[in-house]
Amino acid sequence: MLLAAGDVAEAATVRQGVAAFDRQNYVRASQIFIPFAERGDPAAQTYLGIMFETGRGVPQNYTEAAMWYRRAAEQGDSLAQYSLGLLYDRGLGVPQDIVEASKWLNLAVAAAPPRAREARVRIRDAVTSKMTRGEIAQARLRALEWVPSRER
């Protein structure tokens, strides 16, 4: 029995997608991640965001990267929150918005794994240094009001 390309991806796991990504087999990784991401898997969404941001295995597209990062970030994925915050800071794929950037970076720091925390704090603080007191307060309020939501 022959399997269509989509069937092969369906038979794979997110972990196999990560392994393909780590081997720099980005086309294969994207084939594995896309169906999982479309079904709401935040890890697959984050990896797709990285791939669209960097143009690995897919055409570089910041708008597409931001969309995948947002879907994962809204579910509480810390790396996606960090990456989305950076896109807002730079205005890549989204309108430049320092308050929204700071909100996502604050959330990313709060949920950061220990080995990533220090670097994320430095970036968050660099973004905060460009903000007014009012903008900082607004960003903190947005972060406090944020609640993760799983995709259905």
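Next protein, fold it too.
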Amino acid sequence: MHVLDGRRTVGVGDSEWVLAAGDTLYFEADTPHRFVNDGQSPCRYFVAAMIMRARTPGSRGRSRAGRTDSQAR
């Protein structure tokens, strides 16, 4: 999460941080988390999330529809 304007309180697990404009916080997204705008003005921020999944046998080169990449064309 990166705060562009305003102030945002972020709780991750049992920890809590107050972020201001220009602050960035990284955390594992599968940890319980919460966002609160406790300021008097709007808070603008963005979140970039990356989902990591272990490969399962036979999943290599398959699209969501179950076709190989060459068959999807």
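About the second fold: The first strand starts at residue 2 and ends at 5.
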